[in-house]
Design brief:
Elements lengths: L1 E8 L3 H12 L1 H7 L1 E9 L4 E4 L9 H12 L15 E4 L1 H17 L4 E4 L7 H9 L3 E4 L9 H7 L6 E2 L10 H10 L4 E7 L2 H11 L4 H10 L8 H4 L2 H13 L10 E2 L14 H8 L4 H13 L2 E10 L2 E10 L3 H4 L4 E8 L7 E6 L3 H14 L6
Parallel strand pairs: 1-2, 1-5, 5-6, 6-7, 9-11
Antiparallel strand pairs: 2-3, 3-4, 8-10, 8-12, 10-11, 12-13
Helix pairs in contact: 1-3, 1-15, 4-5, 8-9
Bound molecules: NADP nicotinamide-adenine-dinucleotide phosphate and 2-acetamido-2-deoxy-beta-D-glucopyranose.
């Protein structure tokens, strides 16, 4: 049986689903000859590890308890009061140092998959050191990959040991498909995508003639948006995904060089207007302009999509008119879509479409990434 030791950072919606999937897939993985050995779980304040990370693991009952405690909104440090023994709780002050030590010890011996399911910029130091000491790195977190080029190079130092399928289109095989195209020497000319479920939903509702303000309020009520819908409307999250794809294509660019169209003006930004004020009084002022754009597009046989376009050295993120009868134009609701144009996929692009968000699908993508590393472990 191949053993893949895993250290999980982040125990939110995605991290917890990952732990649940790991536990429920035990017999499947056993049939495949693989065992995932969870040797650490951390949240923003503490890390839980077995007494001996080289020999022991956190068992399934323990992992299920981790999920229950985090679902209740309690921190992992709650465990220190449970006095069950068999594990250690590392507190905030030692968190980074201890995590780094574990990655060094295991990276050099049996290998270790460090899995980032946090939404933090702060894991990057740990990840870079882990990559350097021979660990594999699996990410659902986009932020480390969208930092400086210097950081990026350190993270992808050993490309075969880095997986980040879930950073773009959640579980959809976007990165895997691109890697296959790239390694076959088929040059990618351009990529056109709709990479935000929220903005996909908003744009297709606008197409039906509804006002932006009403659509965004409804999306928030349905739980489709971030707590502050401007986090979706700013386009920043789409820009991060676009940057990840562009860098995969070898483009040496940073966030600053991406043209990002925000759906709200600066004066309605989070620092200047509360969420409630924005939703009640701000956003209605944007209705008319966008309605006119929708009508203009329609008169051209087009629809508006919030798209990312990667072509040559340029990466653009914003509203675009696309033909009604193109893959992007036919997209409805919150699905993500990516159209890849290359020499082999010239007239008819390679199209990848499906649910591009959700804790369950995202965690499934992360799990598949971990299993995909099995040949690197003894
Ligand atoms: N949900 C989706 O549909 C989806 C799709 C694609 C990608 N993603 C990405 O997946 C990641 C996780 O998403 P989520 O929805 O699960 O986020 P979340 O619910 O906000 O959970 C984040 C978790 O990370 C922990 N954390 C924060 N800083 C940390 C640190 N320095 N070290 C270790 N853990 C830390 C948090 O700890 P506390 O519990 O202490 O706050 C929390 O448990 C994000 O980067 C997100 O962009 C999500
Ligand atoms: C994902 O998990 C978070 C945290 O538990 C939760 O608030 C959110 O509603 C979940 N999202 C979905 C789509 O289930």
């Amino acid at each position: 049986m191949k053993k893949i030791p895993v250290l999980l950072m982040g125990c939110g919606g995605v991290g917890r689903h990952l732990l649940q999937h790991i536990v429920s897939c035990r017999s499947l993985h056993a049939k495949m000859g693989v065992h995932i050995r969870v040797i650490g779980v951390s949240d923003s304040k503490s890390l839980l590890v077995p007494m001996d990370v080289l020999k022991e693991e956190l068992n399934d009952e323990f992992l299920s308890q981790v999920c229950r405690i985090k679902s209740n909104g309690s921190p992992l440090s709650t465990f220190s009061a449970l006095e069950k023994g068999g594990f250690r709780v590392v507190g905030e002050s030692e968190l980074r140092k201890e995590t780094e030590e574990i990655t060094q010890i295991l990276g050099k011996s049996t290998g270790l998959a460090v899995v980032d399911c946090s939404a933090s910029m702060e894991t990057i130091e740990i990840l870079m050191k882990a990559a350097e000491s021979g660990c594999c790195v699996v990410l659902a977190n986009k932020k480390p990959l969208t930092s400086t080029l210097e950081h990026y190079d350190k993270l992808v130092l050993h490309p075969r040991r880095v997986r980040h399928e879930s950073t773009v289109g959640a579980g959809l095989p976007v990165i895997a498909s691109m890697n296959r195209i790239i390694s076959s020497g088929d040059p990618v000319h351009s990529i056109l995508g709709s990479l935000s479920g929220t903005l996909g939903y908003v744009m297709s509702e606008l197409e039906d003639g509804k006002p932006l303000s009403q659509v965004v309020r409804a999306a928030k009520t349905l739980g489709y948006t971030e707590p502050d819908p401007r986090d979706d409307l700013s386009g920043m999250d789409v820009a991060r995904k676009a940057l990840i794809l562009a860098r995969l294509l070898g483009k040496r660019i940073t966030m600053e060089s991406i043209e990002i169209e925000s759906l709200y003006p600066e004066e309605m930004g989070p620092g200047l207007m509360s969420v409630d004020d924005f939703l009640q009084n701000g956003i209605v002022k944007l209705d008319q302009n966008i309605e006119e754009r929708v009508k203009k597009a329609s008169s051209n046989g087009c629809v508006l999509r919030y798209a990312c376009v990667i072509e040559g050295s340029s990466v653009q993120v914003g509203i675009r008119e696309v033909p009604k009868d193109s893959p992007l134009g036919r997209l409805r609701g919150s699905d993500n879509i990516v159209e890849i144009y290359s020499r082999c996929y010239k007239e008819q692009p390679l199209v990848i479409q499906g649910a591009g968000a959700g804790n369950d699908t995202t965690a499934a993508g992360v799990l598949a990434d971990i299993i995909d590393l099995q040949d690197l472990f003894p």
